[in-house]
Amino acid sequence: MRWLRLLTITLLCASLTACATSPTGRSQLLLLSEDQLNQMGQQAFSQYQQDLPAADAATQRYAQCIATAIIAELPAEQRQVDWQIRVFESEQPNAFALPGGYMGVNSGMLDVATNQDQLASVIGHEIAHVLSNHANERASTQSATQMGLSVISSTSGMQTPGGQQLMGLLGMGAEYGIILPFSRRHESEADVIGLELMARAGFDPRASINVWENMQRATGGGKPPAWMSTHPSHGQRVDGLDANMQQALATYQQAQSQGRTPNCPRP
Question: Which intervals hold domain Peptidase M48 (predicted)?
Answer without folding.
Answer: 59-242
